[in-house]
Amino acid sequence: MGTHVIKMPDIGEGIAEVELSQWHVKVGDLVVEDQVLADVMTDKAMVDIPSPVHGKVIALGGQPGEVMAVGSVLISIEVEGAGNLKESAAPAPVKEAPVAPKVEAAVESKPAAAAAPRPAAACQGPMVAREADERPLASPAVRKHALDLGIQLRLVRGTGPAGRVLHEDLEAYLAQGQSNASAPIAAAYAQRNDEEQIQVIGMRRKIAQRMQDATQRAAHFSYVEEIDVTAIEELRAHLNEKHGASRGKLTLLPFLVRALVVALRDFPQMNARYDDEAQVITRLGAVHVGVATQSDVGLMVPVVRHAEARSLWDSAAEISRLANAARNGKASRDELSGSTITLTSLGALGGIVSTPVLNLPEVAIVGVNKIVERPMVVKGQVVIRKMMNLSSSFDHRVVDGMDAALFIQAIRGLIEQPATLFVE
């Protein structure tokens, strides 16, 4: 028997050290070639480290949250034969999951020498007591699902990172509802005095760093405008009815992407990146729209490249493809970087007003709030209209307030008169 030592690989791009984010194995585990051993975090990406050999884990080189130098010992594996006595081999990373600068994510769990597999929700029981004002971690999609099912999230045990409630947890709650029917209702309101400390590592650490950096470096200001989306919703419904089966269904997002493209022709200063160290603003002709997408590890921002050259259905298909890739952890680094302006939406939980944080080095982000029907006065008559707010933020170092207001007003005009989206 011999020992095969795996060192922290050189990820590239001049990176000298990386953060060990998570172990997928523990001492004593048998591993096979290409099995993922650990996740490491660079400044830009989460990278999987695979095993180059079959063998048994005999030592781990660090704990989650530890910053390790490239070339340091990551893991030792007992193998048949002599092993790599010179300790020269390092596995090549095989998968990336880049970090989105604009995020709202679940925190990582406490560090441990080895990460144990997450138990299934059904094995833990569906009900857990929380304080009445305690907000459980869950994505907007899960919150909407729970609302539709009439489930109080604070009563559902979350099995995701840091107790995040997942869709399968809701299913387990419903499945075990009958078996727990006899449990005292008072258990849900029992006093709690427990505490839990969560180490900020990996994805959550990068999120925190970038959010802090964005708010400290940029001079944020927000502008909110109300938009009548009745006409564009009617157009969307008509197009879906006529072409949905053959071309795919349209959401509001591709229309908003189109509105950004058209409005940016008159406001190129919004489609820009600001290098505050070099004091240089770069205005770009290409419109690469970042579309914020919720995933189990946080809000990632896949990029619709060259939106200026895409039709409604092309944009819709690309948004759908990228969103699925981000949610499944399969989006590449290129697909999650390089945006020039960002579009963020909370979907059905969009609220009335939000204050989005800039996706540096961009200088503008457009936030979409929920659509509500309200009585409005149109030509002296009270009518029911579908209304929506755009809550947008800008970098006041390079964008003047008047320009920001005119830019959003231009988008408003395009949305309220949707034919103008396609008039050249």
From TrEMBL:
- Enzymatic class: transferase
Q: Which Enzyme Commission number(s) are listed?
A: 2.3.1.-
Which InterPro entries did the record assign?
2-oxoacid_DH_actylTfrase (IPR001078), 2-oxoacid_DH_E2_comp (IPR050743), Biotin_lipoyl (IPR000089), CAT-like_dom_sf (IPR023213), E3-bd_dom_sf (IPR036625), PSBD (IPR004167), Single_hybrid_motif (IPR011053)
**Cytoplasm is among the record's keywords:** no
Which cofactors does this gene product need?
A: (R)-lipoate
For this UniProt record, give its keywords in alphabetical order, as a comma-separated list: Acyltransferase, Lipoyl, Transferase
Positions of the Lipoyl-binding domain = 3-78
What the entry lists under Gene3D superfamilies is as follows: 2.40.50.100, Chloramphenicol acetyltransferase-like domain, E3-binding domain
Q: Which CDD domains match?
A: lipoyl_domain
Q: Which Gene Ontology terms cover its molecular function?
A: acetyltransferase activity; lipoic acid binding
Q: Gene Ontology terms, cellular component aspect? A: cytoplasm
- Fetch the PANTHER family from UniProt: DIHYDROLIPOAMIDE ACETYLTRANSFERASE COMPONENT OF PYRUVATE DEHYDROGENASE COMPLEX, LIPOAMIDE ACYLTRANSFERASE COMPONENT OF BRANCHED-CHAIN ALPHA-KETO ACID DEHYDROGENASE COMPLEX, MITOCHONDRIAL
The family assignment reads: Belongs to the 2-oxoacid dehydrogenase family.
List the protein's name. Dihydrolipoamide acetyltransferase component of pyruvate dehydrogenase complex
Q: Which organism is it from?
A: Pseudomonas fluorescens
